[in-house]
């Protein structure tokens, strides 16, 4: 329904019997109504009134609908930039949830959605947060998928992979949602600087250790910055101890000797696997084949395990995951194993 139709429906009809219906369904309806208020403070005041009415009923399971409504208040506070107020309600919500049994999925969902959104904002705006992999791997963050805040999940992915172009596309596509977050608007320049630093770290990570002397122009192309701005970006990264290296202004290059370890996503693991393939090709030879060989499991998530095993047990190449009886120290592959070149 358009405009304030739901507000009018509530005021002139639902309010006459609001506490006589299922209280959780009533809470669901009031949250939808609250989103029709153009002024977020008006929406918060309306929901606070709903919480008071719910408490007055003294029903046995009234904490469920109250928690559901409070999580919407927390969302409004976050959208207003009141992160402390939001965090307080989330902490209270966790305490309430911990003391409840057989909680309705919608109540669980709204709590975790609010928590996921709060964590995402905190990560994006955090002063020294340059690692998003662990956060993205957490199931709570995936509660954003399929919601009106899904855009912030994709924003985290863009930052994690250092994709400046994707970040700019997301900003254009979700401009209205972004403008509704004062904290993001106020820190627009810091966010751009952060993703440029992450882009730099991704450039370094994608290169082998023998190829870590990088032209400043190559970094400028990927980050869409001038060479002068790239130099500032490098100095910022060096001072924050995100990388270690030497800038050569004469040759217009930077030699990076170390980059801060990060939790890898699937695409980054694939990159690591390819580098491992190259390294194996240089140093190992498959038995009786004359070919260098390396293994990659069928599940992409297992690539990390394969890489670690390859490094820990260097005498033997890895074989197909289907062969359960593979021994990395045996002198020949088992008959059931399939060699992957």
TrEMBL record:
Protein name per its UniProtKB record: PCI domain-containing protein
Keywords: Proteasome
Gene Ontology BP annotations: ubiquitin-dependent protein catabolic process
InterPro entries: PCI_dom, PSD13_N, PSMD13, WH_DNA-bd_sf
Keyword Cell membrane: no
Organism: Panicum miliaceum (Proso millet)
Cellular component annotations (GO), alphabetically ordered: cytosol; nucleus; proteasome regulatory particle, lid subcomplex
Molecular function terms, GO-annotated: structural molecule activity
PANTHER family referenced in this protein's UniProt entry, alphabetically: 26S PROTEASOME NON-ATPASE REGULATORY SUBUNIT 13, PCI DOMAIN-CONTAINING PROTEIN
Record-stated family: Belongs to the proteasome subunit S11 family.
Span of domain PCI: 82-261
């Amino acid at each position: 329904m358009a405009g304030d139709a739901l507000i009018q429906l509530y005021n002139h009809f639902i309010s006459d019997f609001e506490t006589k219906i299922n209280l959780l369904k009533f809470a669901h309806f009031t949250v939808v109504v609250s989103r029709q208020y153009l002024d977020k403070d008006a929406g918060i005041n309306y929901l606070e009134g709903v919480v008071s009415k719910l408490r007055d009923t003294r029903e046995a399971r009234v904490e469920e609908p109250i928690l559901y409504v409070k999580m919407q208040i927390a969302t409004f506070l976050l959208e207003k930039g009141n992160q402390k107020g939001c965090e307080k309600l989330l902490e209270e919500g966790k305490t309430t949830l911990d003391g409840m049994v057989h909680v309705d999925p919608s109540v669980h969902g709204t709590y975790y959605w609010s928590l996921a959104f709060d964590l995402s904002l905190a990560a994006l705006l955090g002063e020294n947060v340059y690692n998003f992999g662990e956060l993205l791997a957490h199931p709570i963050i995936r509660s954003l998928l399929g919601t009106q805040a899904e855009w912030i999940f994709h924003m985290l992915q863009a930052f994690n992979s250092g994709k400046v172009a994707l970040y700019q596309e997301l900003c254009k596509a979700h401009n209205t949602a972004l403008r509704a977050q004062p904290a993001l608007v106020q820190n627009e320049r810091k966010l751009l600087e952060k993703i440029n630093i992450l882009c730099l770290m991704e450039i370094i990570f994608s290169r082998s250790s023998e190829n870590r002397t990088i032209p400043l122009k190559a970094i400028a192309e990927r980050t869409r910055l001038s060479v002068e701005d790239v130099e500032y970006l490098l100095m910022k990264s060096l001072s924050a101890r995100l990388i270690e290296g030497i800038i050569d202004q004469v040759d217009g290059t930077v030699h990076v000797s170390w980059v801060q370890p990060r939790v890898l996503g699937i695409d980054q693991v694939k990159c690591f696997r390819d580098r491992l393939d190259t390294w194996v090709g240089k140093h190992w030879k498959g038995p009786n084949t004359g070919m260098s060989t390396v293994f990659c499991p069928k599940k992409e998530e297992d690539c990390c395990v394969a890489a670690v095993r390859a490094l820990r047990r260097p005498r033997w190449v890895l074989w197909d995951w289907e062969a359960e009886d593979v021994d990395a120290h045996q002198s020949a592959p088992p008959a059931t194993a399939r060699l992957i070149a």
